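Final report, closing paragraph on structural work. Over the funding period we assembled a curated collection of sequence-structure pairs, and we close with a single example.
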Amino acid sequence: MFMKHLLTAILFLLSSNTFAGLPVRYTELLPYVQAAPNQGETNTCLFMASTGAMELLLNKRDGIRVSRKGGSNDLSESFLIWQRDFYDRTNPSYHFIEAAVKKFNHGEAVHIKDWPFSAYYSDGTDSMEAWNQHPNFVELPRLRVPSVVTELLFARGKKCDTNVLSEEDILRIKQALVEHKSPVIVNYNDDNYWHVVLIVGFDDKVRGTCYEIERSECNRRGAFYVRDSNGRKYEKRAYNWFLYNGNAAAVVKLKEPN
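Its predicted structure, as stored:
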């Protein structure tokens, strides 16, 4: 038992030294976040998060600090569903959370006005039409977009695994945000089903919600800014939300020009 505690202490000291110098907050990306549509029951979270990553990076590139619905970089999630996969020769083996956003490396997207997303019919009932291919898919006007590069920060266990992360993984996400000034796409267990969202910032001083965890297990001090597919730009969730329920994370960056 003594050796176990000693090893834990040594690992904590090593990780603390590795991530020394992190600020108490990083909120630089928040103005560039494009609110996602409400995905409802469509199960399109991977494409919501991936499209949101590109939208944020484009808004940041273009200096658009107040994004609006239907703005110049508001992109179609349904197009990304139907876009062909991209084979990355430089990184042929990558995690599933990286696959959808790499489809943008074909260099094109479709604006939301040309292929809107809707999870509901006009009477308010659930719709799955977001999964249907647009009847004029080939003729839809395309927008040129830059390529992205992803870097897998960690992947622990399977898609729905919980309690597989450490405090060091939380620090690793923080470091990636600060170092790359780019969003982090993550997977976690949401009510016993895998769910993909974006982490776009953090603040050690604010209080986050105890999302999908028992209050008795939740330390609300400190939070990630999370862009989910619920119609809002972002929300604050306690670090413990991802510590207990998360299992994979990758940073998404624009590819540097040659």
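Confidence is low (pLDDT under 50) at residues 8-17. Residues 79 and 137 are 8 Å apart (CA to CA). We thank the funder for supporting this effort.
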